[in-house]
Amino acid sequence: MMEITYIDGMRRGIYTYKEKTCPLPGLITLYKDKIKFNDIEIEKPLAYPLRKISKGGELKSMHLLRVMDGVPKEIAKKIQNKNIDIAKESDVVPVYLSGYGEYDKQLVSHFSEAKLFLFNLGKERDLLAHYFYIRKKFPNSLCYCDCGPEELPPLAYAGFDLFPNNPENEAALQSYLNNPTPQYLEMASCASLRAKTLLNLLYLEFWHEMEEYIHTPKNKELYISRDAFWRPLTQRWILQVKDHYTPPSDICLVLPCSARKPYSSSQSHRRFLSVIKNALGPKRASLTQLIVTSPYGIVPRELETLIDYDIVVTGTWCYEEIERSRSMLISLLKNMKDPLVLVHLPENELDVAKDLPARTIITSKGHPLSNESLSSLRNTLTEIKDLIPIPEKSFMNLRTFSKFLYGTDILSDNIKMKGRINKQIFSNNKCIASYDKMLRPISPLVRVKRRWVEIDFDIKGDLFCVGVVDADERIRSGDDVVITRKGMPVAIGNAILSGRLMHTMRKGKAVKVKRKIK
Amino acid sequence: MVSWSNIECISGKIGNARSIILPTQGCYYDKCYMCSYKSSCPEKTPHDIVDIFKQELCEGHDKIKIFTSGSFFDTTELSLKQQIEIVSLAAKQGIKELTVESRPEFITSEVLRSFKDVLGDVVFDIAIGLESANNDVLKYCVNKGFTFEAFERKANILMSNDCLVKAYLLLKPPFLTEYEAFMDVITSARKIESLCDTISINPVSIHKGSIVEQLWLRNSYRPPYLWTLVECLNELMDLDAYVLSHPVAPGKARGIHNCGSCDNTIIKKIEEYNLNKIPINAQCDCKAEWEMELKKIF
């Protein structure tokens, strides 16, 4: 039985079989006639014709006809069809791929749940396609991939749990476990053509499958290599902003990013904000502030506390970086009725605002912080002040943040905020939410439409998978979540698994509970 | 037309053997995954095939071996008349033993009886490419087109007609790992021990245009290691049947090979084994690599 304790591409956890436990990801030792995973003896899968010489083991293997890349189509068909006939329930299933999608797919979809699936590093794309199919269908199963030390990091990142045991692989796994960051992965994947092929496929072609298993980071992320631009995390951000961000008005101000995060704490943004405050007064809450950055494309002001990163800055923007920001901007503008865009960007970023489907005013003149630029921004804002709607409610930025996080405004109409760093939000003298970098409901009266995990018992400590009745499929590991009982918040915590895994995994912790709500 | 002479063990004694490849039209079946002999055969058996055979004969041999890249008894390759003429020409050379090859479907008592007169005292040795005694290996890894039981029946017919039976076992057909290939040869050899006089282990070599070649070109297949053959031969020392191996293209990329530095030494030792059945003892750094190979799943 497997239990995941941490997931960020890589699945860390523990595997238990009859009181024997093994850490994951791990290594298995191959012998001529058997396989050993620490103390667990696994029957070696032999080619179907040789099944009778098998010596057996604690975990029983399926003996299938072996097939590999390069085989002619008719033979692939003959072998995979026969394999469908002989496939039966087993603890261990070797996944032999012929390279002919139609036959391989039929066979792989025919497999029932096994304790362990064995994959070979053949054609990288085929391997990943069939692997992600199995991973999604049988999240409780272990997956092994036959590989060398160069390909081990990207495969471990893809979530493979087991690798062949040899000193080189042991060192490769240990190095990755000691530094399980995307920047290490990207660096290590430069070790071989196949490793980089795997990484590129994971980032560019399988990011959608991958994304579910990516941890929402709490700490500063480093974007060092060019590959980092395509991290599934950044692609998830693009989708989240597109789907869940509701701009306060159709008047947008596009600003450059800053090295210091959150942006509003930086020197440059403090000056921008002071200009905005002077020009717009209370109406500034209705100004949609969009910050252009790489690799996140666009970060709306209300969401700026969610991301923290450092990237290599040279002042030169590459085509993909400009395009990502531009297309995110366009997708936001498309949902607006009559958008007006003020562009306050340095010259080398102006391409982001090229040919937008909106009226566009460039307010910067050279450097965005120059006196000329800032007074131009102030003047333009003053001119258009009448177009900006009066904010409907107080704390618009928090309400927008709340809608993004929870799919709804969890704050009531009349609220007060107390505190400096860890702010508390009060309604009718009752504390309903806390806000630092994150907004968290702490009142049973609040209702959330996202990030909920429904349970049906009185929660004591952390929440385990067995106790999860249902969970929002959009939850990702590392997300702040609200545990609810009949829709009423009973606790808040930090997700260990994605929402889907919470109710498909049979064992292990689902949410680390931070605070109970009374 | 190719022919050559070599020394080998003939009825327990070391003697000269002459091998002659007859350019017939080749095997009618031509579907085995590792074989492409048919592609180098002429479209039709030449009408003067008997004369071609005659030209390759020379004196001073104890044994003649005739290879047709097919079945000697297949009358579409060689008419019965041609077969009898060839056998009678060979028998007149003063040899003790004559070897021909055939798929089992052409072997019948009737056919064998038709050679009785021309053979005289010459022992007729019939070689059958059984490849494996495992029907699933035959069906899925070789695509042989006959079963072990068919071989068994024909081996009995051969024995009851006072012929010698020689069986070829294929070392490392596609879709098997090195370990499985080793186990298959061992198990097969033990299973057919009482059905044949000689067991010849044929390591797969990469024929141009074969299916095995396609796999090999994609890095999905490696010819067996010489170590595996050595292990087979040593393991089968105690068999009643005579075990030997004449690998094709040994030491070459397309044939059975090790690392390149130990190949020649081991090939020589295999030749000695063929003659004297001396257990093979060899060491090389690449043995560790081979041991890793035996552990593979894929």
Individual helix count of chain B: 11
Alpha carbon gap, first and last residue of chain A: 35 Å
Number of DSSP strand runs of chain B: 8
The 3D shape of chain A can be described as: globular
The N- to C-terminal Cα distance of chain B equals 41 Å
Proportion of β residues of chain B?
15-25%
* Domain count of chain A: 3
Our Rg estimate of chain A from Cα atoms comes to: 26 Å
Task: Report low-confidence residues of chain A grouped into runs of 5 or more.
Answer: none
The CATH superfamily of chain B turns out to be Aldolase class I
Oligomer: heterodimer
- How many domain units of chain B? 1
* Main sheet strand line-up of chain B: 1-2-3-4-5-6-7-8
Low-confidence stretches of chain B: none
What order do the strands of the largest sheet of chain A run in, or round the barrel if closed?
23-27-26-25-22-24
Mean pLDDT of chain A: 95
- Please state the second-level CATH architecture of chain B: Alpha-Beta Barrel
What is the N-to-C succession of helices and strands of chain B?
EEHEHEHHEHHEHEHHEHH
- Strand pairing plus helix content of chain A: what structural class? alpha/beta
Task: Chart the SSEs and their pairings.
The complex is a heterodimer of chains A (518) and B (298).
Chain A: E1 2-8, E2 10-17, E3 20-24, E4 26-30, E5 34-37, E6 40-43, H1 73-86, E7 92-94, H2 101-110, E8 116-120, H3 124-137, E9 142-146, H4 152-158, E10 162-164, H5 167-178, H6 182-188, H7 193-205, H8 207-211, E11 221-223, H9 232-244, E12 251-256, H10 267-280, E13 288-293, E14 297-300, E15 309-311, H11 319-334, E16 340-343, E17 359-362, H12 371-384, H13 396-406, E18 416-418, E19 423-427, E20 430-435, E21 439-441, E22 452-455, E23 463-464, E24 468-471, E25 480-485, E26 488-495, H14 499-504, E27 509-516
Chain B: E1 2-10, E2 13-21, H1 49-55, E3 63-67, H2 80-91, E4 97-101, H3 109-113, H4 116-119, E5 123-131, H5 135-142, H6 148-160, E6 164-171, H7 178-192, E7 198-203, H8 211-217, H9 226-235, E8 242-244, H10 263-276, H11 286-295
Parallel strand pairs in B: 2-3, 3-4, 4-5, 5-6, 6-7, 7-8
Antiparallel strand pairs in B: 1-2
Helix pairs in contact in B: 1-2, 7-9
